[in-house]
């Protein structure tokens, strides 16, 4: 199965900020997930990579993931 285009297109800074501003509670913690939302990690830093990308980084020596979905 081919992934829809939106899954690999990425977001611009402006698009991400606009989306984040749509949340009523602006004090919510923002986390990052690499497994479709099953688990997430805190964002420690926001940095640039090769002057071309913004990278959300987790800088923990031992990551502290949160599991969001129950095992089935």
List the keywords.
alpha+beta, 5 strands, single chain, globular, two-stranded antiparallel sheet, 3-stranded antiparallel β-sheet, 2 helices, 72 residues, 25% strand
Q: What can you see in these coordinates?
A:
- This protein has 72 residues and is α+β, with helices and mostly antiparallel strands.
- It has 2 helices and 5 strands.
- The protein has a 3-stranded antiparallel β-sheet, with no helix packed on it. A two-stranded antiparallel ribbon has the order 3-4.
- The longest helix is centred in the N-terminal third of the chain and has 9 residues, at 13-21.
Per DSSP E runs of 2 or more residues, the count of β-strands stands at 5
- Mean pLDDT figure: 92
What fraction of residues sit in β-strands?
25-35%
Please give the alpha-carbon distance between the first and last residues: 23 Å
Order of helices and strands: HHEEEEE
Number of helices: 2
- What is the makeup of the main sheet? 3 strands, antiparallel
Report the C-alpha radius of gyration, rounded.
Answer: 14 Å
Name the quaternary structure. Answer: single chain
Side by side, the strands of the main sheet go 1-2-5
Cα shape: globular
Low-confidence stretches: none
- Class inferred from helices and paired strands: alpha+beta
Task: State the helical fraction.
Answer: 10-25%
Sum this structure up briefly:
The chain is 18% helix and 25% strand. With 72 residues, it is an alpha+beta fold.
């Amino acid at each position: 199965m081919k992934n829809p285009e939106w899954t690999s297109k990425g977001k611009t800074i402006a698009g991400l900020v606009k989306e984040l501003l749509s949340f009523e509670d602006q004090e919510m913690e923002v986390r990052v997930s690499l497994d479709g939302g099953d688990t997430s990690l805190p964002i420690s830093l926001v940095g640039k990579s090769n002057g071309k990308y913004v990278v959300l980084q987790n800088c923990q020596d031992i990551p502290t993931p949160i599991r969001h979905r129950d095992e089935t």
